[in-house]
Amino acid sequence: MSSTHHATTGRHHLSRLLSAFAVTACVALSVTGVAAATQTQSAKNKTSHGKSVKSAPTASISVWFVSNPGPVNNYMTAAANQFDKTHHGDKVTVKFIANTPFKQQLLVAMGAHKPPTLFFSWGGGVLQQYINAGDAAPVSPVSASWVHNFLPSSLGAVEFGKQVYGVPIQGTQPVFFYYNKNVFKKYHMSFPSTWSQLLSDVSKFKKDGLASPIEMGNLSGWEGLMYLEYLTDRIGGPQVFEAIQAHKKNAWSNPAVKGALVDIQQLVHAGAFQKGFDAVDFGSETDALLYTGRAAMTLMGNWEVSSLLGEDPSFVKSGALGQAPFPSVPGGKGNSADLEGNTTDYLALSNHVSSAQKYVAKLFLEDEFTTNAFAKTEVASGQVPVIKGSLAPLRKASLNQYLVPTYNAVAKAPHFQYSWDQSLGSQLSTPLYLNLSKVFELTETPQQFIQAMNKAMTSVSSGL
Amino acid sequence: MAIAVTDTTRKKKSFRYAGKQGQLVGSYRSADIVGLTPTMVLYGGLVLVPILVALVLSFYNWNGIGVLRFAGFKNWSAFFSDPIAAHSLEVTVILTAVSWLIQTPISMALGFFLAGRQRYRAVYAAFYLLPLLLSTVGIALMWQALLDPNFGGLAWLAQNAGLTFLQQNWLGGNSTALWTIIALIAWQFIPFHTLLYQMGRRQVPKVLYEAAAIDGATAWQRFFHITLPQLRYTIVVSSTLMIVGSLTYFDIIYVLTNGGPGDSTRVLSLDMYQAAFESNTFGYASVLAVVLGAIGIVVALTLIRLTGFSSFASQREGIA
Fold this sequence. Notes:
The complex is a heterodimer of chains A (464) and B (320).
Chain A: H1 2-19, H2 22-51, E1 60-66, H3 71-86, E2 91-97, H4 99-111, E3 118-121, H5 124-132, E4 136-137, E5 140-141, E6 159-160, E7 163-164, E8 166-168, E9 173-180, H6 181-186, H7 195-207, H8 222-236, H9 239-245, H10 255-269, H11 284-291, E10 297-301, H12 303-311, H13 313-317, E11 321-324, E12 339-342, E13 346-350, H14 355-369, H15 372-380, H16 391-396, H17 400-412, E14 416-418, H18 420-424, H19 426-440, H20 446-461
Helix pairs in contact in A: 3-14, 8-10, 11-12, 19-20
Chain B: H1 2-20, H2 30-57, E1 60-61, E2 69-70, H3 74-80, H4 83-115, H5 121-128, H6 136-147, H7 153-160, H8 177-202, H9 206-214, H10 219-230, H11 232-247, H12 251-256, H13 268-278, H14 282-306
Antiparallel strand pairs in B: 1-2
Helix pairs in contact in B: 2-14, 3-14, 4-8, 4-11, 4-13, 8-11, 11-14, 13-14
């Protein structure tokens, strides 16, 4: 008995040694996949030439969608069903995949040239990688009529070279400060409108006994990044990050970046964040700090409202949750109406699919996701559409005290910066998270951060 | 590792036997080949081929979707000048060494205790072995909840039971996170090694102790001159599993700290995972995989060599 046990567990341990090669096993599979698929592709191209003569082709198309607990899954399915009904001969199949496996599955499917017709995308640098690899196709030129149905700032992440590569399919998700009004009331304060006020408020909270004025879950690094994004924009304007995104040499050395990092460390020195902020992710624990009044505020995307509504409905419904723009930095070059966050999410079009599938996919996108009817569906599911003219339905919606200001902020924002991690692509976001978390933990100086990021960018640019 | 080695012994014995009878010496019979084929195919497909692919890929740049681009030694020279990788290697070595130093004596002590005949031994055993039944992610999530400095169980004890030393930033402090992780890994794996030592201790013949007792040996003398030498192979097996396991340890760290705070718990296997599946730099990830694999193989072989494990000389000559 015990020897069998020994053997099984021994094997388990052995498999750890082998797991060092698990990565390569996946890689090996994908490589063979690429080789095999290239052959199928050339065969497919030959047959599809004959088909493309038809004037209005029909096709079955597939959609890979990042599963989203909530109503978005439902209206995606509803849109597919409705399209099937109104377009005879066409068929839309939606496959829902969880976030992390989605990224890997899409990568493998693209590499194998067997992609879904339409795929979920956050736009930005990651989408651009697919475009550069010839895996993503444009949906239409910027001059197409449906393009003008959208708020201009919402398409920035999918516009490349006068072509639009994706259609927004979700509400916009800008980042705001969310705060507990009861806590501010208790300490006789109002939400600060400038950075220096924020710093002095943090000190006041600390002095009066609030241990963690700001809650944050920086385990994966993206929460801390939102501070850097906003502060850089407020201090130096959008062009600072534009230079970084363009991989201009030493772009990280811009004084605005350094200023933002210094500001961040000032906040940390003041003891703004809760203990263990770097060992917890965004979720029920961080939310609990806010609604129980152990923290006063948090910087978060507007999904914070629905998240808190799930955790403690009475907190949100009683009106205790406040929403405020990121404070201005006096003397900074950036406009204090600029926004950061996820502009919106998109469906993008694969290149290695038949022309009939491309045709049907474009029709599906335009019919189902660019109209005011779709905007109403989004509003009904608690989202803020990026389709023009959505203000009226938003005013009537529940939680309109959060939705209307969000829509107005997006409509008026001179610049809506898409999250840096998505914009820069995966290769730079890893060192970015790592070095920034060290800045938050005060184990790296702003100067060291800048050097590390300049170096990381150089090695990415040199093709490593 | 243990299994493979055991197989070798059997083979050796059967060869010797075969030699005496004047049959095929040193070559395989067809039954051997048929029997070995499934193992060799699996081993080749799942171990050898991936190693070779990793080795080849380490000389290429590949983001997983585009074309493979030959990079020469670029990835390798990047590895040797990469401060993150160097630091990860350092963390891995510390984690491995400390894990071995902590887990070995505790497992030994518990194993010896469980090998005895005390009252309620089985009840204690059931408690000690509990972590062995839990999945790693389950363990990680449970400890995450317990260690949370704001809502965790330890923080609650600190505030309500006066145990203020428990009020630590266990996973979020640069100085505490690695030690917390090492402690959790020990908590998870000591039960398994306890089983090994319990078994090993039970197999030491009683007569050795009886003879020593007649000669007037003290408890320490019996431990150092009988128990430890008799447990030689158990120690090698347990240490190999511990060291190779720690070198490639990933799950708890990934769930609990993701390598943080900063890079204080960033082990090489996590670095490799991020290089491959977050940065999509498969060439560089392959370099890390090859390095990690090479270290694992060298350590395992060295352990076996140093301890003379491969020769399998009898330790019980003259005992019936």
